């Protein structure tokens, strides 16, 4: 064969292969669930709202997500009666339209900025369902639904710090009459919402148990010391040695409150217990202040110093009552 003919034939084969590849890429790959997921990833990375909407049916996704949120939160409440569950479902149904609109605003914000900043009205809800700190870690696999060639599932890996492990979000895609694929819902989003709230309940219980143990231990030490202080206070304050003994005892009481505060600070505190933790820290600070004022009063004998000590102790006692009520509420 002539050399020119051979070269021409080789070029022809290359062109043919290239043509077949281009046809496959634009007519097969572009009509695949993999192509849709890839474009969603790129659109989110580039903050391209139009491209996200091109490959995601947001109306369907958010509508089903809201139902899954409600169901997941109910599933996580192990002590809720069937009647109470029904009441919650009915109440939630009435809130669906405004809540879905809120989720849409949150989605738009995330697409545009990569975060949920500036959505004060939705922050608590996003935190409740575990989406406030979610991290995307890639797609594990994509497979067609058995028995239905028009549906596929993308197994997307996400990480939520409270889980301390990856969660596989089963993302359902559907193919339309033109062969294009779109994300329409998360098949196991209900499970995700339930599991994140079960984990939170477990973490909350761990905090309550650990903090109660700390408080019980120090309560006995402080009460024993206060009893001794009460016995000593009946003595003669004009005696130098008596005041020294009482001051030493008050120093021990102060140190114990400081130790209690330090041990409480070392505990991991779930968001649900932050208010309770804050109250308990305030109580420690008030009792430390009370001891300081009372010790100072033994030297200056000023009524204002003793009044300040009594006020701090009274405030601490009120906060102890408030903390006990809140702790019981969290434990129920």
Per-chain topology:
Blueprint lengths: L2 H25 L5 H14 L2 H7 L2 H19 L5 H13 L1 H18 L6 H9 L6 E10 L6 E10 L4 E11 L5 E6 L2 H45 L6 H26 L8 H27 L2 H29 L1
Antiparallel strand pairs: 1-2, 2-3, 3-4
Helix pairs in contact: 2-3, 4-6, 4-8, 8-9, 9-10, 10-11
Structural features, described:
The chain is built from 11 helices and 4 strands; from the N terminus they run αααααααββββαααα. The chain has 332 residues and is of the alpha+beta class. A 4-stranded antiparallel β-sheet has the order 1-2-3-4. Helix 4 (58-76) packs across helix 8 (189-233) and helix 10 (274-300) packs antiparallel against helix 11 (303-331). The model is unreliable at 3-28 (pLDDT under 50).
Strand content: 5-15%
Mean pLDDT: 85
Characterize the main sheet: 4 strands, antiparallel
Order of helices and strands: HHHHHHHEEEEHHHH
Cα-based radius of gyration, to the nearest Å: 32 Å
Runs with pLDDT <50, length 5+?
3-28
In short:
The protein is α+β, with helices and mostly antiparallel strands and 332 residues long.
For the structure shown, list the relevant keywords:
single chain; 332 residues; alpha+beta; four-stranded antiparallel beta sheet; 11 helices; 11% strand; elongated; disordered N terminus
């Amino acid at each position: 064969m002539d050399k020119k003919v051979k070269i021409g034939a080789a070029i022809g084969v290359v062109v043919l292969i290239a043509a077949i590849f281009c046809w496959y890429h634009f007519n097969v790959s572009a009509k695949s669930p993999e192509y849709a997921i890839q474009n969603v990833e790129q659109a989110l990375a580039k903050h391209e709202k139009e491209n996200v909407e091109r490959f995601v049916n947001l109306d369907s996704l958010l509508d089903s997500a809201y139902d899954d949120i409600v169901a997941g939160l109910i599933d996580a409440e192990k002590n809720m009666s069937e009647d109470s569950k029904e009441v919650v479902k009915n109440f939630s149904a009435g809130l669906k339209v405004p809540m879905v609109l809120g989720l849409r605003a949150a989605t738009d914000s995330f697409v545009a900025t990569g975060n949920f900043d500036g959505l004060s009205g939705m922050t608590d809800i996003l935190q409740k369902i575990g989406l406030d700190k979610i991290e995307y870690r890639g797609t594990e696999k994509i497979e067609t639904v058995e028995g239905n060639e028009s549906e596929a599932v993308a197994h997307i890996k996400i990480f939520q710090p409270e889980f301390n492990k990856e969660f596989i979000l089963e993302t359902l895609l559907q193919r339309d009459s033109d062969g294009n694929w779109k994300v329409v819902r998360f098949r196991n989003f209900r499970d995700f919402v339930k599991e994140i709230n079960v984990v939170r309940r477990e973490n909350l219980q761990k905090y309550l148990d650990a903090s109660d143990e700390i408080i019980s231990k120090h309560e006995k030490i402080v009460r024993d010391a206060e009893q001794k202080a009460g016995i000593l206070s009946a003595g003669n304050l004009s005696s130098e040695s008596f005041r020294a003994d009482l001051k030493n005892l008050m120093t021990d009481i102060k140190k114990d409150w400081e130790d209690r505060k330090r041990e409480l600070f070392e505990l991991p505190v779930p968001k649900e217990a932050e208010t309770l933790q804050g109250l308990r820290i305030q109580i420690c600070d008030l009792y430390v202040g009370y001891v300081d004022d009372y010790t100072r009063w033994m030297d200056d004998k000023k009524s204002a110093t003793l009044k300040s000590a009594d006020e701090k102790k009274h405030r601490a006692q009120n906060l102890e009552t408030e903390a006990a009520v809140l702790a019981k509420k969290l434990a129920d």
